[in-house]
Amino acid sequence: MFSKMRITKSTENCLEQIEKLKEELAQADAVVIGAGAGLSAAAGFEYTGERFTRYFSDFEVKYGFQDMYSGGFYPYSTPEEHWAYWSRYIYINRYMDAPKPVYDRLFQLVKDQDYFVLTTNVDHCFQKTGFDKQRLFYTQGDYGLFQCSRPCHQNTYDNESVIREMVEAQGYVIDTDGRLILPEDASPEMIVPSDLVPQCPKCGEPMSMNLRADHTFVEDEGWHLASERYAEFLRRHQNMKVLFLEAAVGFNTPTIVKYSFWRMTYQWKDAVYACLNYGEAYAPDEIKKKSICINGDIGEILDQL
Ligand SMILES: [Zn+2]
């Protein structure tokens, strides 16, 4: 009885918050979206379970990995095997379409607004969905780019064609919809041919992914331009009615999106903060009155907006 009452109350509260968010979206001069890993997970980019087994069952058997992350961190003894693993990983998470239309929903919500996106996601989903490239800042890199692992220079390189060659060399077929398919009864190779192993065109050292994992991360020209555009967008709007819309950002790397959104909401008179998160929707006391917190599945919340 008690729990039922509690559920009813929290559902009512949730609906109220959704109505409030609709109003703020309609009234906002600008919307700054901050997105984290949970958004891609909600779009169906899961790194465990059936999706992991479908593409990595051979690595699961050989090494006992339970999810894509652990296989990504493993120190393989040869670069041929390293790239066999990583090419599948990159292909399915960067070049295949998201199974569920979560990003599309978000795009429909803001496409006619003055918006900007700040994200720690590296899977390119915003661009693939149609978000304006000039209004995006990918702070942590992109699975679709290589860089020198040292790095000896600050350029990045598009990796789509070589990643395709690597997965095809393992026996996979890419169908007309871009899906990665293993022909029936075939078992994939767990190495790529040595001549596909990427090397820096300047120093010959191995290439790595352009992902912020440590101090070797390359911030190329595109990264700096996006960073400037974001700063400029904030400068132009700081005295206006800005909605900071945080979507599925966890507490793993809270400084980039979450803490900066809190700080600006606190400092900017007319700013509003909205936190959409499954189980972790929260705003500190200092900005509570200017905040909308909605706990729930991000896909379902977006459906209701
Ligand atoms: Zn180099």
Describe the structure.
- The protein has a domain of 164 residues: 3-Layer(aba) Sandwich (Rossmann fold).
- The longest helix is centred in the N-terminal third of the chain and has 26 residues.
- Helix 7 links the parallel strand 2 and strand 3.
- It has eleven helices and eleven strands.
- Helix 5 crosses helix 8 and helix 6 packs parallel to helix 11.
- The chain is an alpha/beta fold.
- The strands form three sheets. A six-stranded parallel β-sheet has the order 3-2-1-9-10-11, sandwiched between helices. Strands 5-4-8 form a three-stranded antiparallel β-sheet, with helices on one face.
- 43% of the residues lie in helices and 16% in strands.
- Bound molecules: zinc ion.
- Zinc ion binds next to loops.
End-to-end distance, in Å?
30 Å
Portion of residues in beta strands equals: 15-25%
Instruction: Give the CA-based shape.
Output: globular
Bound molecules: zinc ion
Which stretches of 5+ consecutive residues score pLDDT under 50?
Answer: 1-7
Strand order of the largest sheet: 3-2-1-9-10-11
Annotation, overall tally of beta strands: 11
CATH superfamily of one domain: TPP-binding domain
- What is the element string, with H for helices and E for strands? HEHHHHHEHEEEHEEEHEHEEH
- Indicate the CATH class of one domain: Alpha Beta
What does the largest sheet look like?
A: 6 strands, parallel
